[in-house]
Design a protein that fits this description.
36% of the residues lie in helices and 15% in strands. The protein has 308 residues and is of the alpha/beta class. The chain folds into 2 domains: 3-115 and 291-307, Rossmann fold, CATH 3.40.50.2000; 127-289, Rossmann fold. The strands form 2 sheets. The protein has a 6-stranded parallel β-sheet, with helices on both faces. Strands 1-2-3-4-5 form a 5-stranded parallel β-sheet. Strand 1 (3-5), helix 1 and strand 2 form a beta-alpha-beta unit. Helix 5 crosses helix 8 (212-221) and helix 9 packs across helix 12 (279-286). The two termini are 12 Å apart. 35% of the residues are buried.
Length: 308
C-alpha cells in the first residue's frame, strides 16, 4: 500500500501535516502519484490539479475541514458534485464537519482529528522568563489569538466564519477596562483586529509570522486563548493549546467538543463570562493525538480502503 498526498504550498498548517505524514510513514507513502495506490486529497480545492486519469485509476480519499453553507454557491455545489464522482470516501477532522458533509454526499465519511507534535508544542514550565524575554510583565494578563481574521480580498473586511468581531466584542466587554490586559496576535491577515485595537486604544502585541517553536513560546506565556469562530474545521490551535497546557475557551466549533471540557465551551458573548478553561481535561484528550499515536487511525483508514 502506497499513499500519495496532494501538495499545497500555501504556508498553511496542512502543509505541516503533509510533511509530518511523509516523515513518519515513509514505508507506506510515495511522492510519485503514479506509484501510489491511494491518493489523499488533503485539501479539496486541489482535486482539479490532479490528472483525472490518476483519479480514476486510484482509490481516493478527500479531506474536508468545514463547509460554510451561508457562502456555498451553486458553483461550489457543481464543483463538489464533480469531485464527488472521483472520491471513494471522505475524511473530516471533526464530528461537526461530518454532519455538514453528510448533507452533500452519500459516500462514507470518517471523522479523525489531526495529530499534534508534542515535541514542538509542549509546556515549557518557564512562563516568567519567557514573558520577561518578550517584554511582558508578570502581572500582565495575556490573551491569545493566532489565526487570521481578515478576508484576503481587501485586508479590511472581517473573515466572519473566524469570528473576529465576536473576539473584539469579548475584549471590549470583559478586558478593555483592565490596564494589564494585552492581546497577543500572530499570523497573517490580522488587519481587522489590529485596526480596531488601534482605533479603540486596546493594548495588543503583534508577531506577524513566527516559527512553530516561537509560536509554542507564545502559547506558554498566555493566561487565556480564545477561539471565537462561527464555523471551523479545527482549529488546530485547540489541540496545540491543549497539549501545551495553555488555558483555552472556545465556541462550539470544530474539534472543541472532542478536546475541551463542556465548561470551556461558550455559545455567545454573554455566555463567555461563564466559560472556564480546564487545562488537565484538555491535555488528557490531546495526548491521545500526539505523533505517532494520532496517526494510527489514519493508517487503519487507508488499510481499510486499500483492502476493499
Amino acid at each position: 500500500m502506497k499513499i500519495f498526498l496532494s501538495k499545497i504550498n500555501e504556508s498553511w498548517v496542512v502543509d505541516r501535516f503533509r510533511q509530518d505524514w511523509y516523515l513518519s510513514n515513509p514505508d507506506i507513502s510515495t511522492e510519485k502519484i503514479k506509484d501510489s495506490d491511494i491518493i489523499w486529497i488533503i485539501s479539496p480545492w486541489l482535486w482539479k490539479k490532479i490528472s483525472k486519469k490518476q483519479l480514476k485509476q486510484k482509490k481516493v480519499v478527500c479531506s474536508i475541514y468545514h463547509i460554510d453553507f451561508d457562502s456555498f454557491t451553486s458553483s461550489d455545489q457543481k464543483d463538489f458534485k464533480q469531485m464527488d464522482d472521483f472520491v471513494d470516501f471522505y475524511h473530516v477532522i471533526s464530528d461537526h464537519t461530518k454532519n455538514q458533509l453528510s448533507k452533500l454526499t452519500n459516500k462514507k465519511i470518517i471523522s479523525i482529528p489531526f495529530w499534534v507534535d508534542n515535541k514542538i508544542f509542549k509546556n515549557l514550565n518557564d512562563k516568567s522568563n519567557l514573558r520577561r524575554n518578550l517584554g511582558f510583565n508578570e502581572k500582565d494578563f495575556l490573551i491569545g489569538s493566532f489565526q487570521r481574521d481578515t478576508e484576503g480580498k481587501d485586508l479590511k473586511s472581517p473573515k466572519l466564519i473566524k469570528g473576529p468581531d465576536i473576539f473584539l466584542e469579548i475584549i471590549k466587554k470583559y478586558y478593555s477596562q483592565s490596564h494589564n490586559s494585552i492581546v497577543v496576535l500572530t499570523g497573517k491577515r490580522r488587519d481587522y483586529l489590529i485596526n480596531n485595537f488601534q482605533e479603540q486604544n486596546i493594548n495588543y502585541k503583534y508577531y506577524e509570522m513566527l516559527s512553530v517553536e516561537e509560536v509554542n513560546k507564545l502559547y506558554n506565556i498566555l493566561d487565556l486563548y480564545i477561539v471565537s469562530s462561527r464555523v471551523e474545521g479545527g482549529p488546530q490551535a485547540i489541540m496545540e493549546c491543549a497539549i501545551s497546557k495553555t488555558p483555552i475557551v472556545s465556541t462550539d466549533v470544530g474539534i472543541a467538543p472532542q478536546v475541551l471540557n463542556p465548561i470551556s465551551i461558550y455559545k455567545n458573548i454573554e455566555e463567555f463570562k461563564n466559560a472556564k478553561p480546564d487545562i488537565n481535561f484538555a491535555y488528557n484528550k490531546a495526548i491521545e493525538y500526539v505523533i505517532p499515536i494520532g496517526m494510527s487511525p489514519y493508517i487503519k483508514m487507508f488499510e481499510e480502503l486499500y483492502e476493499n
